[in-house]
Amino acid sequence: KQWYQRRVAITAGDTCSAMERTMFMLVVILAFTATVSCDFRIISPYEEGGIEACVRTCAGTTGRGTTPWQQYYSTGLLVTIDISGCEFKDNLTPIISSNLAGKSQHWTAEGGSATYNPNSKRFSIYIKNGIDNSGILAQARENEWRIDWQAI
Fold first, then answer.
1. With helix as H, strand as E and coil as C, how does 102-133 read?
2. Per residue in 102-117, pLDDT tens?
């Protein structure tokens, strides 16, 4: 009962010291973090036995105006994204999600979420414009198209 009364006093801001309020908030934050972080599971890895003991998450972007787009045939684009800095195990392929982002006109493009040849070091994305592929490289550069990605 005494603990409960102190908790009420702390939350109400009554006669508690700053240290008591800080300790209470720390306990609440730690309890919430422990509850949330303990419920993260991957249930379908790519490889048999392919889950690291500690789940690694990594995210990045190819950057606004700095994405190294390459012309792919006359109507498409290709970019290969280096994820080696994530340090995934060499024999395991992470689960990768990606999207095409930019200032304008990327809504007309197709392929920004389709990853090709993923492995622990890199993956590729092929883009084509669903409306008009002429000048797609210039369009991508002018509108700062980029790939934002997450890997687990």
1. CCCCHHHEECCCCEECCCCCEEEEEEEECCCC
2. 999 888 889 899 999 9
φ, ψ at 19 (rounded to 5°): -65, -45
Helices (H), the chain: 2-12, 18-37, 136-142
The reported pLDDT for the residue numbered 15 is 57
| CA dist., res. 135 & res. 139, Å (int) | 6
Task: Tell me if residue 58 falls in helix, strand or coil.
Answer: strand
CA–CA gap between residue 48 and residue 37 (Å, rounded):
24
| Bridge partners, 128 (sequence order) | 76, 110
Residue 39 has phi, psi (to 5 degrees) of: -110, 25
Q: What's the predicted TM-score (pTM) here? A: 0.67
**Could you give the angle at which helices 18-37 and 2-12 cross, rounded to 10 degrees?**
100
Residue type, 24: F
| Residue 61: how many other CB atoms lie within 10 Å | 15
Residue with tokens 């979420």: 113
